[in-house]
Amino acid sequence: MRSYPSFILSILSLSCLFAIGCGGETSPPAASIEAGGSSSGGSGESLSGSPVSVESGGMADTYQPQERESHPEVVLTTNYGAIRIRLNAEKAPATVDNFLNNYVESGQYDGSIFHYVAPGSMILGGAFTADLQANPTRSEIQSEAANGLKNVRGTIAMTRDPEYIHSATNQFFINLADNPNLDHVEEDEKKYGYCVFGEVVEGMDVVDKIAAAPVKDVEGFPSLPVESVVIQSAKRVR
After folding, report:
1. What integer pLDDT is reported at residue 188 of this predicted model?
2. pLDDT at residue 67, as a whole number
């Protein structure tokens, strides 16, 4: 598990980067985001590399299976309400596979929290429990930030160590505003960007409600909601 001092350093370094990069932008400046799991933090297990699973039965005859496989949907049920997310396995196949098969299907997001809230920028979650214990992670994945998807309001993206491109594990964030400074620019750690792999299709009002929650600074956890914002369950629904 990555140590808290390293976690704080990642937040501070990204805060400085985004504050400088967003000068003159009309949209709110992008806030800091926590680093993803390190190579020492995972279990060492490799991703299966299997395609996104497709559930069976119950669909109309006119339904297209390929659409379902390419754009599966997940509902995050929180104590603030439900958030429905449509994933893009066509543009980010490895990232969607990791999110679904390593964390959603295994139930590892159930009981996790949104532990970082930056109004006007993002909410970050998936990595910690309500008592601020780190959830176990699988192996880090190759970043797909160069897939052409942008960090605009309502999209979901993976976090990573700002010094290591291919370090995403279980942490993700939902953009509250357009955050162009998080987009892929070039093959460089500081400009590679953060991989967008889906978008909120229902419940953006819930996301905004979470963003308005009072926050406090706790050692190792800046901008932590005063009342825990708990992901009670994460379930694939399509």
Report:
1. 84
2. 57
